[in-house]
């Protein structure tokens, strides 16, 4: 770290104070809703990502779901999508580029009827040929159009696809490796680009100039600074009400909030919880809603002491989740007492299995042979998509665990580096557990996080009963019956305690008073088409 003379330090301190006062003055005056030159009906989003997560380059995965939420869902469509228009319902899967779909009797082959009359932003028609071209890019390693980065981005959403073919100009068939009851859900984040543009630009060129069928069209990109998208006047579902969307990566929550107050942006996610009351009093819209999200520590179960279920369970009884929610998160999350978020279709009260009982935690540690506790290390990201305020949160958990004799050394790591480890099924070598933000919004994630044969089961949890329930879920077409199977799995997980479950995020977003018409769904995704600015 550079060292400066005391006089220069005082100068920097004074400058910082003046900037803070200026920010407060601007916010007290209402602040501009848009940056200069961006126009009135422009949404400017202060993202939690550290870079613009452009799809097709690996950056989308490197920045978590930011790339899918704010880039993929705006520039592109999938065959299916989540219904994000309601705040009081868990989002259902609805038609997108496919008007309808139907499986065969054993759920191993799906026929998709494609939406007629849709064109890509460059005028290329959407049809079965375009669909097959894109599926080749994702899946067909023998095709000249195959793109490894896109295959990695598709991940588990495409891993079970065995074959696909065109039936007619507006019909395709997808065959799977065994039953796949929730294929339509998994396909919601498999996006389709213009074959014309991809062939003209090449893979890397297309990543810099993406062309989809989505509600917004790509306009410009300055890496690390901003992406501009404009409304698609010819969008098949109707032109968005907002004219322009600008994405700005601002990973530091204090800087995001300052940008909102000064009018540089008019939408931010995850403000510092301590700022929420003042933001409300200044007239900003502070929106929260339950959604399908969990914030855990994933134990490395391959080594002591976390190969002992009593140790894993003890830690779950040692932490005061409600105090964390009240004192640090200021109500922007809710305690996670089990493995199913309340905004998941699988949730049942019986899934909540933990509480706060330090005496019970000490007793379990003694029974496991650790009456005086032990020392452990935690790898955690300092910021990043869905991580809320990880440093103060983990510091509070460190204090709770110290009270029962467990000394935790916190080892910070950059978010993208954490994801690189996690998505190859690895907990860093210098850590006993890692802290990460996860979701079950797509059903395949259940098996991803806990399945014995999952390549991204970083904690190496294994239970044949849970594996069997996940396998059965793939064969059950009824949504409610399938949700019941996940609930049963969650109750087994509650007994095995493969994670320290901490909180379920309530997805805090803060919008300027000038932003109108946004619906906060029970989802991390967001529909930007029905809001306006002015």
Description:
- The protein has helices spanning 6-28, 59-62, 66-75, 128-139, 148-154, 183-186, 195-208, 253-262, 276-281, 309-318, 321-328, 358-367, 390-402, 415-422, 444-450, 464-473, 479-496; strands at 42-47, 80-82, 93-95, 98-103, 109-114, 161-168, 171-176, 216-222, 226-231, 244-249, 267-269, 285-287, 293-299, 333-335, 374-381, 406-413, 433-435, 438-439, 499-505, 509-511, 515-516, 532-533.
- By secondary structure, the protein is α+β, with helices and mostly antiparallel strands.
- Among the domains are: 77-213, Dipeptide-binding Protein, domain 1 (Alpha-Beta Complex); 293-505, Dipeptide-binding Protein, domain 3 (Roll).
- The strands form 5 sheets. The chain has a 7-stranded mixed sheet with strand order 8-9-10-1-11-20-12, sandwiched between helices.
- Helix 1 crosses helix 8, helix 10 packs antiparallel against helix 12 and helix 16 (464-473) runs antiparallel to helix 17 (479-496).
- The longest helix is centred in the N-terminal third of the chain and has 23 residues, at 6-28.
- The protein is globular and about 70 Å long.
Features:
globular; disordered N terminus; 17 helices; 534 residues; Dipeptide-binding Protein, domain 1; Dipeptide-binding Protein, domain 3; 7-stranded mixed sheet; alpha+beta; single chain
Largest sheet: 7 strands, mixed
Distance between the termini: 44 Å
- Largest sheet, order of strands side by side? 8-9-10-1-11-20-12
Which structural class fits the helix and strand makeup? alpha+beta
Strand content: 15-25%
Q: Indicate the low-confidence ranges by residue numbers.
A: 1-37, 57-62
Q: Return the CATH architecture of the domain at 293-505.
A: Roll
How confident is the prediction overall: mean pLDDT?
Answer: 90
CATH topology of the domain at 293-505: Dipeptide-binding Protein, domain 3
Shape: globular
Total E-strand runs: 22
Total DSSP helices:
17
Q: Provide the helix percentage.
A: 25-40%
Q: Indicate the CATH class of the domain at 293-505.
A: Alpha Beta
**CATH superfamily descriptor of the domain at 293-505:** Dipeptide-binding Protein, Domain 3
Cα-atom Rg, whole angstroms? 24 Å
């Amino acid at each position: 770290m550079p060292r400066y003379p005391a006089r220069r330090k005082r100068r920097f301190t004074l400058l910082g104070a003046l900037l803070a006062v200026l920010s407060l003055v601007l916010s007290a005056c209402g602040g501009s809703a848009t940056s200069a030159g961006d126009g009135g009906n422009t949404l400017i989003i202060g993202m939690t990502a550290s870079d613009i997560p452009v799809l097709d380059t690996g950056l989308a995965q490197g920045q978590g779901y930011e790339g899918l939420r704010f880039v993929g869902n705006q520039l592109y469509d999938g065959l299916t999508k989540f219904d994000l228009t309601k705040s009081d319902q868990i989002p259902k899967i609805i038609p997108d580029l496919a008007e309808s779909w139907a499986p065969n009797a054993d759920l191993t082959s799906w026929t998709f009827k494609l939406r007629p009359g849709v064109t890509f932003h460059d005028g290329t028609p959407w049809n079965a040929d375009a669909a097959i071209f894109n599926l080749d890019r994702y899946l067909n390693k023998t095709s000249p159009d195959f793109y490894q980065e896109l295959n990695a981005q598709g991940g588990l959403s495409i891993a079970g696809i065995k074959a696909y073919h065109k039936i007619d100009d507006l019909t395709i068939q997808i065959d799977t490796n065994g039953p796949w009851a929730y294929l339509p859900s998994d396909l919601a984040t498999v996006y389709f680009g213009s074959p014309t543009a991809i062939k003209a630009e090449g893979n890397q060129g297309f990543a810099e100039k993406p062309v989809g069928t989505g509600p917004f069209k790509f306009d410009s990109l300055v890496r690390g600074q901003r992406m501009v998208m404009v409304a698609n006047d010819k969008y098949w579902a109707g032109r968005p009400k907002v004219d322009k969307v600008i994405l700005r990566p601002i990973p530091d929550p204090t800087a995001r909030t300052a940008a909102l107050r000064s009018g540089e942006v008019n939408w931010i996610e995850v403000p510092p919880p301590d700022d929420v009351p003042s933001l409300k009093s200044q007239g900003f819209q502070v929106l929260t809603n339950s959604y399908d999200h969990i914030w855990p520590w994933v134990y490395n179960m391959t080594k002591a002491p976390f190969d002992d279920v009593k140790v894993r369970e003890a830690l779950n009884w040692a932490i005061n989740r409600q105090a964390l929610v009240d004192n640090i998160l200021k109500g922007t999350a809710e305690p996670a007492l089990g493995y199913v978020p309340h905004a998941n279709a699988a949730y049942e009260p019986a899934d909540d299995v933990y509480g706060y009982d330090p005496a019970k935690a000490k007793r379990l540690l003694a029974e496991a042979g650790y009456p005086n506790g032990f020392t452990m290390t935690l790898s955690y990201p300092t910021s990043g998509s869905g991580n809320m305020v990880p440093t103060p949160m983990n510091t509070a958990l460190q204090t709770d665990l110290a009270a029962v004799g467990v000394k935790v050394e916190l080892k910070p790591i950059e978010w993208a580096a954490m994801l690189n480890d996690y998505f190859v099924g690895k907990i860093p070598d210098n850590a006993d557990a890692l802290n990460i933000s996860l979701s079950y919004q797509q059903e395949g994630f259940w098996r991803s996080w806990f399945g014995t044969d999952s390549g991204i089961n970083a904690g190496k949890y294994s239970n044949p009963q849970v594996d069997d329930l996940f396998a059965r879920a793939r064969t059950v077409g009824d949504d409610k019956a399938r949700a019941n199977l996940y609930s049963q799995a969650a109750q087994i997980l509650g007994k095995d305690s493969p994670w320290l479950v901490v909180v379920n995020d309530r997805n805090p977003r803060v919008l300027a008073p000038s932003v109108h018409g946004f619906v906060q769904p029970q989802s991390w995704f967001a529909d930007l088409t029905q809001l306006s600015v002015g």
